[in-house]
Write a structure and sequence with these properties.
This protein is of the alpha+beta class and 190 residues long. 19% of the residues lie in helices and 35% in strands. It has two domains: 115 residues, no CATH class; 52 residues, no CATH class.
């Protein structure tokens, strides 16, 4: 994905480190810094932009996962997100805090969530696919599959892209059992 140019400051940033804003004259791309500063000014918030360098953390198997961070103000709150960078979809985490809260405290909460999730395993390799671990719990994220003709969502489980069909094969050994599917906001930790 090529970098985009901020319409305010001219910085070239990754598309995930900015926002496309709709105006009467058309859409303009703003880097996160310019976007947050303009929203904070409109809302009268005391906000100081902080950028976090990418961070690499290993999972249970010693596999490194590199995360890029972005912060976006909305209303009187701030969303701090960690997005795994790489050739494929991967982990995504976020926390929501008061926009004026110290961003380093918010980062610490997000970092603890990342470490906790990378320390869990929900699926494990079996044959040519995966199986659910003995804990019988699967956590992940619902994302989209832009090239799918059926417009089916894709799942990210343990940082791996999993189709609904693959998940179906993983639960097939449990025919006759009951289950609970709970969907919650990506900023919640359950």
């Amino acid at each position: 994905m090529s970098n985009q140019t901020c319409s305010v400051c001219g910085a070239k940033v990754s598309p995930c480190d900015g926002v496309s804003v709709e105006y009467q004259t058309g859409t303009k791309f703003k880097c996160s810094r310019c976007y947050n500063e303009s929203i904070a000014e409109q809302l009268g918030l005391d906000y100081e932009h902080v950028s976090f360098d990418p961070l690499t953390i290993q999972d249970l198997d010693g596999v490194p996962h590199t995360f890029q961070f972005r912060a976006h103000i909305f209303s009187d709150q701030l969303s701090l997100e960690a997005l795994e960078t790489g050739p494929e979809d991967g982990y995504e985490f976020s926390v929501i805090a008061a926009a004026e809260q110290d961003l380093f405290i918010t980062f610490k909460t997000l970092f603890e969530r990342i470490r906790r999730e990378l320390g869990r395993r929900h699926i494990e390799p079996e044959g040519g696919g995966y199986r659910i671990t003995h804990d019988d719990v699967v956590r992940g994220q619902i994302t989209d599959e832009p090239h799918s003709l059926e417009r089916m969502p894709q799942l990210i489980i343990d940082g791996k892209s999993i189709s609904w069909e693959e998940l179906g094969r993983m639960v097939a050994p449990n025919v006759g059992f009951r289950f609970k599917l709970e969907i919650f906001d990506r900023s919640e930790d359950k």
